[in-house]
Design brief:
The complex is a heterodimer of chains A (390) and B (85).
Chain A (H helix, E strand, L loop, with lengths): L1 H48 L3 H14 L4 H13 L3 H13 L5 H18 L2 H14 L3 H14 L3 H15 L4 H17 L3 H14 L4 H13 L3 H14 L4 H15 L2 H14 L4 H14 L1 H14 L3 H11 L6 H18 L4 E3 L5 E2 L15 E3 L7
Antiparallel strand pairs in A: 1-2, 1-3
Helix pairs in contact in A: 1-2, 3-4, 3-5, 4-5, 5-6, 6-7, 7-8, 8-9, 9-10, 9-11, 10-11, 11-12, 11-13, 12-13, 14-15, 15-16, 16-17, 17-18
Chain B lengths: L1 H21 L3 E5 L4 E5 H45 L1
Antiparallel strand pairs in B: 1-2
Helix pairs in contact in B: 1-2
The chains are: A mainly alpha (390), B mainly alpha (85).
Chain lengths: 390, 85
């Protein structure tokens, strides 16, 4: 019986021992994980916070060698470096990731895509082009790679390749890229026009219209081609169609349109057209054009009367300057001196003003661009409507 | 520390072997559904191992249940945050 007593006493002792052992092992295991993370990650983070990014990268790179879970952390880190403008560091990091053995194919292609973006940012467009072309051939992240390739060909002004890749992108994603492709054709038409190849330019414009039937730029270029060929009636029709396609471009369209009206002697039609625009467009450009028209046709008084009546409805610094210029000759003495000061002031006020703004990124410009220099968006730069602008 | 643990382990093994050798005579257990006969030393060892395993199992269950509770609370609180915002 004595052995049973011993057993009865020893079993709880063994139970307690097992309980403590399991508990201790669990605590130890989780502690090991924390210390593993903390010792390297916090050292790396510490380097980052102390602006010693080279040392931080070294720590993170060593960490990546024995822990595959850190690959995404490195991708994020590389992205961060690129955004900060430290492209050489981003390139080093992504190159290291790409050359690592044992990396999964999916992760390697992500690293390649990131590396391509680094090259683009660094201006190494040939290397970026090669990488993105490989990715497209591998069908890995092809839409992103194609988007980058289109951006590269736009930068290199290789419009044929840009069109080809934009069409492939369109086929792959199903997104409508035709307005952008129409702009590429317009660029080609513009190049052909500058080289005197009118029929080639017309072919390109035809293709632009096939991509986007209401492409303002294509209408304007068609008008310009006709005007240069002396076909002013056709030019007027094209410019009028441009206004119909997008009334926001009136300040760009009116000067050549009025010139063509004058060449064919249809100033009555011009007046009707401008009156029609005036009701739909709230900028100052049609007012100034009509003022000039009345001034030439009905005399100085009619022009000034029309301008003053319009300025009450749509106050504008440009309109005020036109009014000052028109009335300057009639004023003498001290008032004339004051008017001269006022004219200089308004001129200086207008000189510093951005007349156009990108509707996508807010980039302000004094001249019109079809492609925004900042965000590279097409046909996004529009006249600013305000007292000191359009 | 490791050396001390090793020494204690060796001591226990020696004591176990000695106790096992001294208690080699068989002992019978009636477990209601089965009857077992084994050496006294082996019976002692089996009882200790079962007790140790049960203790470990209890600790493991307790810890994992606590972890689940903590995780559930964390998820609930993270789910509530956007609703408040």
């Amino acid at each position: 019986m004595s052995i049973l007593y011993v057993l009865v006493l020893l079993v709880p002792a063994a139970f307690a021992s097992g309980w403590f052992a399991a508990r201790r092992a669990a605590v130890h295991r989780s502690g090991m994980r924390v210390s593993e993370l903390s010792s390297d990650y916090f050292r790396g983070l510490n380097y980052l916070l102390n602006e010693e990014q080279d040392k931080a990268i070294e720590v993170f790179l060593k960490l990546a060698e024995y822990n595959r879970d850190t690959v995404e952390t490195h991708l994020a880190l590389g992205n961060l470096f690129r955004r900060r403008g430290e492209v050489d560091r981003a390139i080093r990091l992504h190159q290291h990731l790409v050359s690592r053995p044992g990396l999964t194919e999916a992760m390697k292609t992500v690293a390649l895509l990131e590396l391509g973006e680094d090259y683009m940012r660094a201006g190494l467009l040939d290397r970026a082009e090669a990488l993105f072309s490989d990715l497209v051939a591998m069908n890995a992240h092809a839409p992103s790679a194609l988007r980058h390739l289109v951006a590269i060909y736009q930068h290199e002004r290789d419009w044929h390749k840009a069109i080809d890749h934009a069409r492939r992108l369109e086929a792959m994603t199903g997104d409508d890229e035709s307005p952008m492709i129409a702009q590429f054709y317009c660029e080609l038409a513009e190049q052909a026009r500058q080289h005197g190849a009118r029929s080639e330019a017309r072919d390109y414009l035809h293709q632009a219209f096939e991509c986007q039937a209401d492409c303002v730029r294509a209408f304007m270029l068609t008008g310009r081609l006709h005007a240069e060929a002396g076909e002013h009636a056709e030019a007027v029709a094209a410019y009028e169609a441009a206004v119909g396609a997008d009334i926001a471009f009136v300040p760009e369209i009116l000067p050549p349109l009025l010139n063509s009206y004058a060449r064919i002697g249809q100033m009555e039609r011009a007046e009707h057209f401008l009156r029609d625009i005036l009701a739909r467009y709230h900028g100052i450009s049609p007012v100034l054009a009509l003022t000039r028209l009345y001034h030439q046709r009905d005399g100085e008084r009619a022009g000034i009367d029309f301008l003053t009546s319009q300025l009450r409805q749509r106050p504008s610094v440009r309109g005020l300057m036109a009014l000052i210029d028109a009335t300057m000759d009639k004023i003498e003495g001290e008032a004339r001196e004051n008017f001269l000061i006022l004219r200089d002031l308004t001129r200086k006020l207008l000189e510093g003003q951005a007349m156009y703004r990108c509707s996508r990124c807010g980039f302000g410009a004094k001249a019109h661009h079809w492609q925004c220099p900042s965000c590279k968006g097409w046909s996004t730069i529009r006249p600013i409507h305000g007292v000191a602008n359009e | 520390m490791r050396l001390i643990a090793l020494l204690i382990l060796v001591l226990f093994v020696v004591v176990g072997v000695v106790v096992g050798a001294l208690n080699a005579d068989p002992v019978s257990y009636d477990l209601a559904f089965a009857k077992l006969t084994m050496p006294k030393g082996a019976g002692l060892l089996v009882a200790l191992v079962i007790g140790w395993l049960l203790g470990g199992l209890t600790a493991w269950l307790g810890m994992s249940l606590r972890h689940r509770r903590v995780l559930r609370r964390a998820r609930q609180s993270s789910g509530k945050t956007p609703a408040r915002a």
